[in-house]
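dumping this here so i dont lose it
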């Protein structure tokens, strides 16, 4: 499922992005299969020690040499990720149905990442789609994510973002 900047283009405010982020719905144990697929698709892995990099980050960054586009292939086989992939919107791009994260799951991914750019993307999604969002889904998973070390304040941070949006005209 596409996440990141491509999902922001669909749900939030347009912005430039320099890569494509894809969450795979499989764990790092499938690295060998993924490397074979990358070879078939002419995608070049970027890390020198691919196995160590994936073990540490759960990400396999690759480059499409023909286009110069970087693609971050993100390993995750959690129950949340399975739910998010099941909820993904199917958008027709270049004759293919491409799964793109729902607005709710994009918000969750972005708040979990927590970088300034991600939080601005969340604000853009809220400005465009606040009245359409399934807040029960967002809040449920935000509470679950507070059990992740370093993300204990995620539900509170999300509630603050939502209240900031409400303060600007919701």
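and the seq i came up w/
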């Amino acid at each position: 499922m596409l996440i990141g900047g491509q999902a922001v283009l669909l749900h939030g405010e347009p912005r430039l992005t320099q890569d494509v982020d894809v969450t795979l719905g499989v764990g790092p144990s499938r690295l060998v299969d993924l490397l074979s697929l990358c070879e078939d698709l002419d995608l070049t892995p970027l890390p020198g020690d691919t196995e160590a990099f994936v073990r540490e980050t759960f990400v396999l960054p690759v480059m499409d040499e023909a286009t110069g586009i970087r693609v971050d292939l993100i390993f995750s086989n959690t129950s949340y990720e399975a739910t998010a992939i099941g909820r993904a919107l199917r958008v027709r791009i270049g004759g293919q149905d491409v799964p793109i994260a729902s607005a709710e799951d994009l918000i969750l991914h972005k708040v979990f990442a927590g970088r300034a750019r991600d939080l601005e993307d969340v604000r853009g999604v809220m400005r465009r789609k606040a009245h359409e969002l399934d807040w029960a889904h967002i809040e449920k998973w935000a509470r679950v994510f507070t059990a992740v070390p370093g993300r204990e304040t995620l539900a509170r941070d999300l509630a603050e973002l939502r209240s900031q949006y409400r303060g600007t005209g919701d």
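The radius of gyration is 17 Å.
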